[in-house]
Fold each of these.
Amino acid sequence: MREIEKLKETILKEYPRLTEDSPFTFRCHSGVSCFNECCADVNIFLTPYDIIRLKNRLGISSGEFLSKHTISPFDENLKYPIVILKMSDNEKKSCPFVGDDGCTVYTDRPWACRMYPLGLASPKEDDDSNEKEFYFLLEESICQGFKEDKKWTVGEWINDQGIAEYTELGELFKGITLHNYLQEIEGLPPEKVDMFFTAAYNIDKFRDFVFKSSFLEKFDVDADRVAKIKDDDVELLKFGFEWLRFSLYGEKTINVKNSVLESKKAEIAEKMRKKSEEN
Ligand code: SF4
Ligand code: SF4
């Protein structure tokens, strides 16, 4: 993970910053000599929405997807859990989804695969150096796509690769991962790491947490919202982000029911009364 931090630093300091109008030349197709070479031995960080797309594509639960196809490396420098696509245990360490004709999950491929050869660098929430989000070009040495003659602007590439569908959820997730609170602490305590992991990455487990526990007895979630999040993974993920803002950062994104607040107040008052009687 230190290598990734180093790469981030190099990108910030040395890579040319591209805007949506910046041009580049690139084409990837089955005729290039490097076809499928990049779909092996690579760190692909999965976003929460990537996991929803892939687990639904494969027709499995998020828990099964996570245990079968991902790793979540621990690193003390990481402020929150991350999920990386697990490469196959073969000589090439190929992606589990690569086939002879290319990506077998192409229409649901992860955000990072869609973006390549572009990357996106985002400043932290408390960044006061006037850093702005920018695109950069990742020119992997094996990649022959840069020798092709197709011209793009960054904006055209983003449209062509269907990246807009990922943007809203990506922005909401960034609101969690780049939050000031996370920058100020050493790391989240284990129970909050678990909550982060469940709400962000293990959507089916999060659904059980909301619907099969006393959650809806304690929190005020209106009936329309309950109906929406019951069967819709994307709506549930948006709700999960609100829950993380509430449970990790103490923001008022979710309301506790008045009856729960009243009974908590009564419980505290009773404890204080007993304590004063003892003294
Ligand atoms: S998900 Fe598809 S595009 Fe991405 S590395 Fe795997 S095979 Fe390649
Ligand atoms: S290395 Fe580049 S050109 Fe070759 S398959 Fe991968 S993205 Fe396409």
Note: The two ends are 54 Å apart (CA to CA).
Amino acid sequence: MLASSDTALLLRQLPKAELHLHLEGMLLPERVTSLAQKYSVRLDADELRCRYDLRGFSQFLELYKWATSFLREPEDYAQLARDSVIALNQQNVIYAEITLSVGVMFLRKQNVAANFAAIREAFLQNAATGAGPHVQFIFDAVRQFGAAPALEVARSAADLSQEGVVAFGLGGDELSVPLCDFRDAFLHAHHHGLHLVCHAGETGGPDQIKDAIDLLGAQRIGHGIAAIRSSALMNTLAERKIPLEICPTSNLRTSALNIQLNSAHCKLADHPLPRLFRHGIPITLSTDDPAMFHTTLLEEYSAALQMGLSLDELRIIARSSFEHAFLPDPARQSFLARLAQSSDSQASVRTVGRAIHNE
Ligand SMILES: [Zn+2]
């Protein structure tokens, strides 16, 4: 058995992909403080601490609304992108699909194209120096805002599909507007060559996942942990190889885990990730909104180990995150080669380590 420090090092060195990561969810309390100062908003330290101390999904939506209210011009988004590059590099994330809450930008009457250009430029500058992860973007609509604003987001994603926007998605409150209302938005995105993702089965039931796939053509499901409540749906996901983007700490902090397991007291160890994975459903591991959930991708991988997954199983999940990324095949193969190379060198280090230990 590897010592925990060895395991931590192996996980850190593992090249990783983040497929479910909201840029706005990278807003650390320190960055909110500096933005508040920039806009001369008085911020009470206790209020800040209290807002970031999450106790459920509605409080999370409230925090998201409040924190993002300090993102007011393109430079604020660019600064957040630069913060994100640093955080992703620390996790050895070499590829990320960054979700942008474009529905929120439109609601605030911001210039989406200008915000996006600033964000893209900030990521590209780092990638050009070899210092940052390779990134692509997902434009996300907000479910509770309704169908018409979602269509506006899909149109904007289509307009920018040559600039690195690869998918259209839907997030927000699953219990608000039915998924069938969003068919036009998803169809528009599909007709313009975009991939499709949807948050479903996070706080809602298995029917939400089924509708996301059957009515909207979702190719990946955000969260999807409600699948654990339907063996028929688990079979479908496994047979059709539809991935679930699993974000364990998010599920704990928003109480989505309590809802799906119908239990008032849940721990990370109770998460259904191992059961979903061992049923043959493709799993990718992500952080969702790491600054708001006080987590990192490394911590999510460590949490999965504590749920009983082996290091080899974690490598399969790391590989799955590249396999289900919205990448052209040559780029995908190049990332997979880097992952394989890393696994080979880790295996040889462990072999040498064992030989030294046995001498
Ligand atoms: Zn999300």
Note: The chain has 18 helices and eight strands.
